[in-house]
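The methods section describes the discrete structure representation at length, but only in general terms. Each protein is reduced to its one-letter sequence and a matching series of backbone shape codes. I believe one specimen quoted in the main text would settle the matter. An entry of this sort, consisting of the sequence and the corresponding backbone structure tokens, reads as follows.
***
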Amino acid sequence: MITFFRRLRQKLLSENKFSKYLMYAIGEIILVVIGILIALQVNNWNEKRKAKAKFTNTIEQVYNALDSDYNYFSRSHFNLGYQMKLIDSLIYHPLKVNRELLPFYVFYSQIKPSDQFKSEVNFYLDNLEFDTNNLKESNLIKNISSYGSQVQTDYFNDNEANFIAPFLKEINVANPVLIFGFSALNNFSSVNNSFFNIQHQEQMLELIQTESFRNALISTNRQNELILIFISDYMDDIYYNMKSVKDYEPGVKLFYNNVGVLGSATTNGWEKSIPMTLIDAKLNIWEIKIVLKEGGVKFRTNESWTTNWGGETFPKGECIYFGDNIEVKEAGYYHIRLDLLKKNYQFIPIEND
């Protein structure tokens, strides 16, 4: 093509057809300019496509970081609520509390959720490049950034008084290892009752019936109510931001893989998970049809306990990250549906299949 135009140009010059050559030259310049403009347009399109792909990938990371935060706060919400019920039993029904576990309950009443929580939302936001001229995109990032800047506040420990610790220090009783943030319920099912003797139990019973200690317990629960408000607000913010991301980028999905069910109610027991089937990748819904006997079950990923969910109720309920076992009340053939986006589960009895 280039050779053809070169020969045409030489022919026009040799024939002294200057006016035609001039028109040809102008046309050639116009073609070159058009070619450059097209090339620039294609390059701009490619750059926008790359930027869009990078934005989608990073916002999906933000989406999963928000989900991780939600898991943490939902677990803390559940455990804190459980602790408040336990404290109420110490306040209003001290003589009905299991005497062997009483010292553990008293020490447990002062524990707060783990202060090791660090959200990854800000890390991914710092790597997020977005179009500041895009109002929807800008508002989306602004709302998530607002959550990210607030959630780093250490509201569990630094600004909270420990009303119970002085009493326990005064009676000089050894402190058992009790973990709030990891798991409250399983902790009490496996405590070593021989850690405290009868004298310690009597000492604790006498302590919890004093007015001053009862007031300390009441103050602790009022403080816990405020912490629950913070946690609930964060959970609401996370839910709103995750929904906003999903509305803006419907293709984003959670990174949970190889989800399975296991427990004493299954044929595999607690040794190996029975794989569930991912039926909706966008909504992260997993299902399985399985025969269960009476016993406990949990859900986990990748044959690891680093990511697992339990629950309080059967046959349906809310998934609780690192929660207690879901107790299967009646043996039978079930269709289990696990929604890891909305964090709920359902065991549906199958009559005939």
In short: The longest helix spans residues 18-92. The radius of gyration is 32 Å.
